[in-house]
UniProtKB/TrEMBL annotation:
Transmembrane segments: none annotated. Belongs to the short-chain dehydrogenases/reductases (SDR) family. InterPro entries: KR_dom, NAD(P)-bd_dom_sf, Sc_DH/Rdtase_CS, SDR_DHRS6-like, SDR_fam. One of its GO terms (molecular function) is oxidoreductase activity. PROSITE patterns: ADH_SHORT. It comes from the Bacteria. Keywords: Oxidoreductase. Residues 11-187 form the Ketoreductase domain. This is Oxidoreductaseshort chain dehydrogenase reductase family. Pfam families: adh_short_C2. GO terms for biological process: bile acid metabolic process.
Length: 258
């Protein structure tokens, strides 16, 4: 999963949205680099698939809805009770709802806001005392959509703009406490969340035309960046939104000609 090895032995990492896609890849990367992990998601069966083949004593599965405020407190309490501490939090859970604002159902906005924004706030509040003790750090999964606009994604983009704002501001607030806060920002990445997008060569071509490296992202492209930001190699990096986008955001938006 990672070309370089990071020493996460004796570290406890809490990861949300760990049942598929980027969250699953991140979980495996931490396990491969020696960490104990607490993995959170709605479906226990999916979480079990994520940790299949790893020693049971190295992971704790928590199947809970993170959009419910009190669940974040319960998750943190369970993690500390099981492993004794929390060193790293990876706030990865997110949902995507496409559509223009005038057509969006209020229930869709409630869903995307509660998972992408509210759950981030609840977990940050709940885990702060533990990160203060461990002098740990938090890494969020944002998106290049948090820095720019996209057609038909106003709600999703707004939530990712919010995450970027939280990351930068919390990094300032928590910096003197010895806690680092950063984010990774992928572009179009083939995961369960993007099923139905770019499934044929013709549908995929507009995305490829914007990607300097000529292919969509994979979850395995994102995981190493998360490990780096939470590792001892990044001890002077905080408040950063690290793009992991194959060069997508290097473009001015002009079409690829020639």
């Amino acid at each position: 999963m990672t070309k370089n090895k990071y020493d996460f032995s004796k570290k406890t990492v809490l990861i949300t949205g760990a049942g598929s896609g980027i969250g699953r890849a991140i979980t495996k990367a931490y396990l491969d680099n020696g960490a104990n992990v607490v993995i959170v998601g709605r479906r226990e069966s999916a979480l079990l698939e994520t940790v299949s083949g790893y020693e049971k004593e190295r992971y704790l599965i928590i199947a809970k809805d993170i959009s419910i405020p009190e669940n974040s407190v319960k998750i943190v309490e369970s993690a500390v009770k099981h492993f004794g501490k929390i060193d790293v939090v990876v706030n990865n859970a997110a949902v995507l709802v496409n559509g223009e604002i005038q057509d969006m159902l209020l229930s869709d906005w409630e869903k995307i806001r509660s998972i992408n924004i509210d759950a981030f706030v609840y977990l940050a509040q709940a885990v702060y005392p533990e990160l203060l003790k461990s002098k740990g750090n938090l890494v969020a999964t944002s998106s290049v959509s948090g820095s720019f606009g996209d057609w038909g994604q106003s709600a999703y983009n707004a939530t990712k703009h919010a995450i970027n704002g939280f990351v930068r501001s919390i990094a300032l607030d928590w910096g003197t406490d010895g806690i680092r806060v950063n984010a990774v920002a992928p572009a179009f990445t083939k995961t369960e969340m993007t099923l139905g997008i770019g499934n044929t060569e013709k549908e995929l071509q507009p995305f490829i035309n914007r990607i300097a490296l000529g292919r969509p992202g994979r979850p395995e492209d994102v995981a190493p960046a998360v490990l780096f930001l939470s590792s001892g190699d990044a001890t002077y990096i905080t408040g950063t939104i690290l793009t992991v986008d194959g060069g997508t955001s290097a473009s001015s938006g002009q079409p690829h000609i020639g």
